[in-house]
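thought: user wants a sequence for this fold. calling inverse folding tool.
action: design(structure=
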């Protein structure tokens, strides 16, 4: 006999993540009752993943559970917030308990790593859709808002850019990527939210954003909100060997600049904090690269290794742009 909605909640969702003392009442009532620590503000973000838009129908459900939470934790990292609570709304075409068990395993493993508790949500029938809302705490003086960049600030990015885009390109266009395929697919399916980087550097940064739609588009959001522009040194953009090879072959920078799905951080750092930041970098588990500078003039300039400007046509991913 198929499990009911309430049996599903009890069996798969009631124990996801860790148990936190600031959850006064969690799953099982009409609302959760949650306690925000004194002196902190609540940071909230929500993302929806839709089958056929954000993931392929044959995706590994364990990796999908991980990614559904990871992309939201990435938003908290971009704000400089510490993760705390999460809600999950899951629309399923049918009940597949093997699929659910794997999905919850991926979700819960990441939640435990970042001390996150699932405190509520909903399950419904329909096309496979996953909506996750995360809640975190941040000292209001350290919140990394998009409207705080100033001319002269330095632009840093974590990790390497374009790997997830290349994996997606390989799958959609049938490109043979050889031995790096597995590593690239890992970057697409199992993104790593840079929470630790944010916690370590948030007192030095002035603004930040996670790179979900491509560096040009996401840095552009900071520039627009802050009323500034930016200059990017393309030779300083951190690239994996497969992405470097693709750029050499195609002479196009669209993967690291516009492909999206990297979920790395773009950090804006006042120049006077550069020395302190670089002292802390060796203690982190991810590469951090200085790639440009905030300017007073609007727009984003991309320069090649000679300092000459390069015209980059592609912006970033937009759900509602005509295709």
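)
observation: tool returned 323 residues.
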């Amino acid at each position: 006999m198929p499990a009911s909605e309430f049996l599903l909640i009890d069996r798969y969702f009631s124990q996801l993540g860790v148990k936190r003392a600031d959850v006064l009442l969690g799953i099982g009532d009409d609302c959760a009752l949650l306690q925000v620590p004194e002196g902190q503000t609540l940071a909230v973000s929500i993302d929806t993943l839709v089958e056929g838009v954000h993931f392929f129908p044959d995706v590994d459900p364990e990796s999908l559970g991980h990614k559904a939470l990871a992309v939201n934790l990435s938003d908290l990292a971009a704000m400089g917030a510490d993760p705390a609570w999460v809600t999950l709304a899951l629309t399923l075409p049918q009940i597949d308990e093997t699929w659910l068990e794997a999905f919850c395993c991926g979700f819960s493993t990441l939640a435990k790593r970042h001390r996150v508790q699932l405190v509520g949500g909903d399950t419904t029938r329909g096309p496979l859709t996953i909506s996750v809302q995360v809640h975190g705490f941040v000292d209001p003086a350290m919140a990394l808002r998009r409207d705080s960049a100033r001319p002269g600030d330095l632009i840093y990015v974590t990790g390497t850019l374009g790997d997830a885009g290349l994996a997606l390109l390989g799958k959609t266009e049938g490109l043979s990527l050889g031995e790096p395929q597995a590593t690239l697919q890992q970057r697409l399916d199992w993104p790593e939210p840079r929470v630790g980087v944010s916690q370590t550097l948030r007192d030095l940064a002035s603004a930040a954003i996670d790179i979900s739609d491509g560096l040009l588009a996401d840095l552009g959001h900071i520039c627009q909100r802050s009323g500034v522009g930016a200059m990017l040194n393309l030779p300083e953009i951190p690239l994996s060997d497969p992405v470097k090879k693709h750029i050499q072959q195609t002479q196009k920078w669209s993967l690291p600049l516009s492909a999206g799905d990297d979920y790395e951080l773009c950090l804006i750092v006042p120049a006077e904090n550069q020395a302190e930041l670089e002292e802390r970098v060796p203690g982190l588990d991810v590469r951090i690269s200085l790639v440009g500078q905030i300017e007073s003039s609007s727009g984003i300039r991309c320069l090649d290794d000679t300092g000459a400007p390069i015209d980059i046509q592609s912006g970033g991913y937009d759900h509602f742009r005509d295709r």
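thought: summarizing for user.
answer: Here is the designed sequence. The chain has a mean pLDDT of 91.
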